[in-house]
Amino acid sequence: MVITTDTHLSNGATTKAESWFAAAEYVPPDAIFALTAQYLKDPCPLKVNLGQGTYRDHTGKPWVLPSVRQAREQLLAQGLDHEYLPILGLRDFRERAAETALGSAIYSGREKLAICQSLSGTGALHLVGLLLKKCQRPLPKVYIPEPTWSNHHQVFRSLGFQCESFSYYDYERMRLDWDSYLSVLDGAEAGSIFIVHACAHNPTGCDPSKAQWREVGQIMKRRSLFLLFDAAYLGFNSGDLDEDAFAIRHFIGELKLEAAVCVSFAKNMGLYGERVGCVVMALNSHVIARNTQSTLEMLQRSEVSNPPAFGAKIASVVLGSEKQRRTWYTDLKTMSGRTREMRESLHDALIACGAPGTWDHLKQQSGMFGFLGLSPEVVTILREPSSSSHLRDAQFYSVYG
Ligand SMILES: Cc1ncc(COP(=O)(O)O)c(C=O)c1O
C-alpha cells in the first residue's frame, strides 16, 4: 500500500512523500565497511586498516595465494565456460569442501550428510537459518557469543529468530569467560541453537581449549542443544587444518551429534570476493540427510537459483589433488605464521615503549584478529589523522590507563 510520510530535506525542511517504501528506515552503514571507506579517504601515508578481516602481505597489499594462482591458471588454460552450476553447486567442490571440514573418517559416512554450496560463509549461515526455520516450530532461541562477528545477529534476526547474547570474553582478565559459557549452556532451554566459531574466534582470537570443547560437547549432548559451527578460518588459525577442525570433528565424529557447519573459503583461500562457501549438515540418518539436502536445494533455488561458479572451480582444483593441497597447506602456514609474528611484534613493541598494562593476552590469541582491549576513547584517538602527535601526549596515556 502507498503510504504518505514526512521526509526531511538536507536543508532541514520537511516535505510530504508518497511511496510503497515510506516505511523503510534509514539504516547507518555497516560499521566495518564504513571504517574501510573512512580509511580509503584518509590521505595519511602511514594509515593502516585494522578493521577489515582481510589478510595483507608484508607490503600491506592483498595476497593471491600461490595455490589459488596456480589453480586459476590451470582453469584458464583448460578454457572456462560460463554455464550455470547445479542448484546445489559444483559437485566436486561440495564433496571436497565437506571432506576438508569433516576429515575423511567422518566423510566416509557421507550418506548422512547434506551438502550445499553457498554464497560464502554469510550465505551458509543464512541458508542454515532458513533450514532451521523450515524445520523447527516454534522457532528456537539462538545464542550468540558476545563479542562476535556482527553479522551473526543481523542474519538470524532478519530471519525472525530471537537472538540472545552470552558473555564469551572476560574483558578484565582478557580470556574466555568460561564460567559464563558453562552457565549459559546449563541454563538454555533444550532445543536452543548455539552459534560457535569453530576456531579463531572473531574478534577476540580466543578459543576454548580441547578439554573445554569436550566439556561443551558433553553439556550440549546432555541438554539437547544444537550447534551451528561458523567455520570461516579453518587452517588459518594454527596453520593446520585438522587442528582447527578439532571441535567440528569431536562433536560430529566422537559425540555423534547432529550439527550444521558453515564453511567459508574467503579467508583461508583469500577468495573473499568470489563468495565460495558451503553448508554441511551432519545428520542422524541417510533418509533425513536426503530430505534435508533436497530442502536446502529448494531454499537455494528461491534465494539465488545457482551459486557462483568461478571461485568454486578454483577451490575445487586446490582441494582436488595432493600436490595442490600441499601448496595450499604451505600458504596457510605462511598466513597464520605471519599473523602470529605480527601479533608478537606488536606485543614486544608495546612492552618496549612502556605501554601501561599487561599484553600477554596478545601472544595467547590466534587467527586473523588481535584483540588489544583498548578503550573506545583510545581507539578514537588512534583513528584520527593527528593521532601520531597524540602518541606523545600525556592526555593519551591518561585515557589509555
Ligand atoms: C566469524 C566469521 N564468520 C563468517 C564470516 C563470513 O565471511 P564470508 O561471508 O566472506 O565468507 C566472517 C567474515 O569476516 C567471519 O569473521
Protein described:
By secondary structure, the protein is of the alpha/beta class. The chain has a domain at about 70-325: Aspartate Aminotransferase, domain 2 (3-Layer(aba) Sandwich). Helices cover about 45% and strands about 15% of the residues. Strands 3-11-10-9-8-4-5 form a seven-stranded mixed sheet. A two-stranded antiparallel ribbon has the order 1-2. Helix 2 (about 65-80) runs antiparallel to helix 12, helix 3 packs across helix 9 and helix 4 packs across helix 10 (about 285-305). The longest helix has about 30 residues, at about 320-350. Residues about 390-400 have low confidence and may be disordered. Pyridoxal-5'-phosphate (PLP) binds near residues 53, 149, 202 and 230. Pyridoxal-5'-phosphate (PLP) binds near residues 149, 264 and 266.
How far apart the termini lie comes to 55 Å
How would the global form be characterised?
globular
Helix share, percent: 40-55%
**If helices are DSSP runs of H or I spanning 4 or more residues, what is the number of helices?**
16
Oligomer classification: single chain
CATH topology of one domain: Aspartate Aminotransferase, domain 2
